[in-house]
Design goal:
- The chain has 14 helices and 15 strands.
- A hairpin with a 2-residue loop joins strand 13 (390-392) and strand 14 (395-397).
- Helix 5 packs antiparallel against helix 6 (162-180) and helix 10 runs parallel beside helix 11 (285-292).
- It is globular, with a radius of gyration of 27 Å.
- The termini are far apart.
- Strands 4-5-6-7-8-9-10-11 form an 8-stranded parallel beta sheet. The chain has a 3-stranded antiparallel beta sheet with strand order 1-2-3, sandwiched between helices.
- Residues 1-29, 31-36 and 38-63 have low confidence and may be disordered.
- The protein has 3 domains: 1-51, no CATH class; 73-182, 2-Layer Sandwich (Enolase-like, domain 1), CATH 3.30.390.10; 186-408, TIM Barrel (Alpha-Beta Barrel).
- By secondary structure, the protein is of the alpha/beta class.
């Protein structure tokens, strides 16, 4: 019997083999051992090459052990963001917004996170800061590679304060992405080309100021207009005097009866509005179900949609949900909410509060999963400390750097 030469199977005898049964058994055993060794070497080579190609640095960057004596340094601070225009909704009017910014510094890598507290849920920047400070020691000693377990513990230790939870979660995810050497959209298995168009938001204002804001938003193909007051018709007419672009509107629970909501929504449909967010108070789910049966354009839940467990009860009353990291507690919870909504056949939307590029970019990394995006909170402020997601002709352009991909502004 002749054995063909095999350059990758070292030590095999090539040529005529001894005829004894014992030698044939020994030869077969050596051959199987060599093939097994080759398969294992090929597997290791493949893993190394795949990791090196995907993570831009091989196994060293994905190493999950800590440096000797490694302890994280966690900082939480309040950042004041100055608005380009006074921002008015049915809930409030202001020239600035305060957010909580968290940094997670370990092994020479710094993860950044941000949460915008929502007064509607009795959260303030100061209460968010205190919540984050209360678990500083836990976070400093926790294993960030077990980030899902860490955040489950954070949710147990902190009651409410979802903006604080969001800031912590985003900082951990940014750290993980940087250590792995991959953008977070790649970590979640997403294609950045699938990121949707984002709307640009027009707050409630006088007709003259509304027209000016619409002209300033010329680069955006879709506008989101805040309504919910007695001035709704004047607001929309001011917008329509300047542009015929598609509109989406957000009533922020402003209409108090189902009859008023139906009347407003049917008129808005005649004005080229694509869908309406949160027409009535969040608790009025059955009334919204009645409205849904009497209008023709989709209704999207905003204030009524807080957590993954909120979504099943909204099906049938709403066509979709607006998911905000600040409301639910970060990227991991937002990802779960998207999956729950999709399983129920509902439309999905990622929104934001007024915040810097930290929070908006975190949401943008998940945006290839959703149908709609309203991720412009960073574009409404004048002192954004970071560069992250960009918008080109309304299209979200995700950074290709590791983690969130943030760059500090000079």
């Amino acid at each position: 019997m002749l054995v063909k030469p095999h350059s990758r199977v070292p030590g095999l005898f090539v040529g005529r083999q001894p005829e004894s049964a014992w030698n044939r058994v020994r030869l077969r055993s050596r051959l199987l051992d060599a093939v097994a060794q080759e398969l294992e070497m090929n597997r290791r080579d493949l893993m190394k090459s795949c990791l090196g190609a995907q993570w831009g640095g091989g196994l060293a960057q994905s190493e999950t052990r800590f440096l000797p004596g490694s302890v994280a340094r966690v900082e939480a601070r309040i950042a004041r963001l100055l608005l380009r225009h006074t921002w008015t909704t049915t809930m409030s009017s202001s020239d600035f917004r305060d957010t909580l910014q968290v940094t997670y510094d370990r092994d020479g890598v710094v993860g950044h996170g941000e949460g915008a507290p929502i007064i509607r849920y009795k959260e303030t920047a100061e209460s968010a800061r205190r919540a984050a400070e209360s678990i500083r020691d836990f976070l400093a000693s926790a294993n960030p590679w077990q980030f899902e377990k860490v955040m489950a513990e954070v949710f147990q230790r902190i009651e409410g304060e979802y903006a604080a939870k969001a800031a912590i979660d985003i900082a951990l995810m940014d750290w993980i992405g940087q250590r792995l050497g991959v953008p977070l959209y790649k970590y979640f298995g997403l294609d950045p080309a699938d990121a949707p168009l984002t709307t640009f938001s027009i707050g409630i204002d006088t007709p003259e100021a509304t027209r000016r804001k619409v002209r300033e938003a010329e680069a955006f193909p879709i506008l989101k207009v805040k309504v919910g007051l007695d001035t709704d018709e004047a607001t929309i007419e001011a917008v329509r005097s300047v542009t015929r672009k598609p509109l989406r509107v957000d009533a922020n629970e402003g209409w108090k009866s189902k009859e008023e909501a139906v009347c407003k929504i049917n008129w808005l449909e005649s004005q080229g509005v694509e869908f309406v967010e949160q027409p009535m108070p969040a608790a009025m789910i059955e009334e919204t179900r009645w409205v849904r049966a009497h209008v023709h354009i989709p209704i999207i839940a905003d204030e009524a949609c807080l957590h993954p467990s909120s979504i099943p009860g909204l099906a049938g009353a709403y066509d979709g949900v607006n998911i905000k990291l600040d409301k639910c507690g970060g990227m991991q919870e937002a990802f779960r909410m998207i999956q729950v909504a999709k399983a129920l056949g509902m439309k999905t939307m990622l929104g934001c509060m007024i915040s810097s590029s930290v929070s908006v970019t975190a949401a943008a990394h998940l945006s290839p999963l959703v149908d709609y995006a309203d991720l412009d909170g960073n574009l409404l402020i004048a002192n954004d400390p970071y560069l992250g997601v960009r918008v080109e002709a309304g299209k979200l352009v995700l950074p290709d750097r590791s983690g969130l991909g943030l760059e500090a502004r000079l």
